Queue: 3 jobs
Job 1
Amino acid sequence: MPRMMQRAWRRDDSRVPGAIVMETRAFLLRCALTAAISIVAVASSVPAMADTDPMDTVKTTVNQALDVLRNRSTSPAERGRELIATVHDKFDFADMARSTLGYHWRELTAAQRSEFVTLFTSFMQDAYLSKIEGYSGQTIEFKGESRTEPGYAQVNSLVVQPNGAEPIHLDYQLKQDGGDWKVYDVAVDNISITDNYRNQFNRVIQNQGYDALVKAMRAKQQELTASLAAG
């Protein structure tokens, strides 16, 4: 069941429209590793093979991501850049961005849509990569793959904590794009990233308008970018 929502950004909540500063407890308090993995897990630096199996894709690339996270000889910023360098073509950020806006997407011009996809992509990458220092030896167990309908699949996994704490459920929703598979949503302990943000963004737009949402996201994304660069 979804867990209680708590604040993710503590220092400057007052500067950001209410709903956008909310995050899930799973993302903030329990999932520093999960947040990073959910951004990079199916990002592969090798060309996709036709009819790639979703489970094999996720397994291979999660292990690649873990290798990066374990490499403490590089700075957090360098590790973040290495992870991001391989992610863009494997996550369907345009689909995720469209989903987070729900029916408000239809109200945007073509220019606004393009602007939002770019902003959302950077926002997501920086927000979760800023948590990569939370990695402390967690491992991933893959529990199964299901084909929900033609061209769509779900890969289920567990993030196993080294201290014996309750494992974290991490489920990937993928869709086939040609011979490749792309992630269009990730659920952490049954909390969907896109559903979570859709609820937040909708409240901001309804209360303050689309421009207020964009302004808040730009401010937070710039802060996160600066933080990563200083790491």
Note: The beta strands are 5-7, 22-24, 139-149, 152-160, 168-177, 180-188, 191-192.
Job 2
Amino acid sequence: MKFENIEVFNFEGAFRGLRNPMNSWDKSDSKYCGLDDDIDCNICPLNSHSSNTVNPCNTMMSNMGAYIIGEKDLNLAQRMIKGGNEQSKFLRQIMVSVDITAPRYFWSEFDTYKVGTVSNSCSTMHKLKDYPFTIDMFEIDEECSKETWQYIINYLEKMRLAYQMTKDIKFLRAMKQALPESFKQKRTITLNYAVIKNMYLQRRYHKLKEWSTDFVNWVKSLPYSQELICYED
């Protein structure tokens, strides 16, 4: 699996709204680091937090600089998280956009999560016929028979070439019907921290490594993931 073009945004709006019920905006202690300020990134809270060891803060956050959540705001946020979904609705306002390339068997389970997600996928109907089939298009473990896979790929390529020559839809249908679940597909996904938290809690011990390892590791790479998404205390 691959996670690319990751964007995380609206921390400021989410934490401003977090203080709306009590009109306590004056108590907020979060701020942007300010890219023009003389700030030592080595002592930045985001760089020192285990939640952000994979990606530097500014690769996924605002071009104004990283949004640093203050101690008071974080304390309030975690109290709301303890209060359940309604109390922690500010998480729905922290948005994430990401390109995920994953096998179709992963996407069949991902599609369980319809609320709070938007997905645009690469089309197998329109583009499957355009490129030669190669082994790297599939998620294949070492234990799988290379001979079997080569037979499958040869068949798919035979149907693809037949369609290219004849434009007969029956060959395109044959490709669609024979396409394995391990075929990798890219989707651009938009979702939020509340949805990601739900997915993380439900899937972190899943039998498929695409969930329990790949997805979980990506979640843990997001800004303040340990403090907000993975937080359960």
Note: The chain is about 40% helix and 15% strand.
Job 3
Amino acid sequence: MKDSVSFKHWRRVQDLASREWTADPNLIKNEFAEAQRKYQTVLKKIEADYNFQDSFDILDLGCGPTLVGRLFAKGKLVGIDPLANELKIQKLYPAVKIVNGRGEELPFADESFDVVFCRNVIDHSQSPRKIVSEAHRVLRKSGLLLLACYVYNPFIASMKFLADETGIEKNIGHPFTFTPKSFKNLASGKFAIAEEILVHEGMGPHDYGKINGPATHWSFWYDMVLFLNFKILRYPWFVRELLLVCRKDA
């Protein structure tokens, strides 16, 4: 897997994200409702299992305008996003400190946080490894990285790579595609993985657990891939949203 993309490519990813957030007036509401459905119970259990305190400093890395980190019941939340100024995220959450910045270059001192929460970010980034490394740097000893991303079974991941490389279906907004193995390898290079949580399992190319349901558009390419995936190779799933609970210096 490639380690990074060019800054120009990353900038295109951000421009695309900005247009998506501003084009649909209901997107923030729907995206947060999806995250709430998926993560409210999960995060509550993590808070109990890992003894979260009200004094904890929590960073929502790549918070976007949904600021999913506000689902934490305990701790003092800070959000950071490269589109924070452009999307005026601070105005949406005046009680939370919002910083404009990149995950690859976090503008915080070493050991500033007890928890870093990073959901649905690294596959949109310039360098996933730099983001994980920066999360490690800003975490205090025994701090937690809660790292979540969509992952694909090996066949689907290879098909997505083929489609992107050949131009069958370019996905500019997602420069990186992970399998469960490559996703866990990304984290385990810096952290000890304490727990792996399956947040969502999807059976098709539009089944990501969105509030407004899967899209209805299909193509011959999708039909062929799904036939091979389920009927020939017998993979029981297409996409998963996976959350890794990673401990620093464990």
Note: The domain at 7-247 is CATH 3.40.50.150 (Rossmann fold).
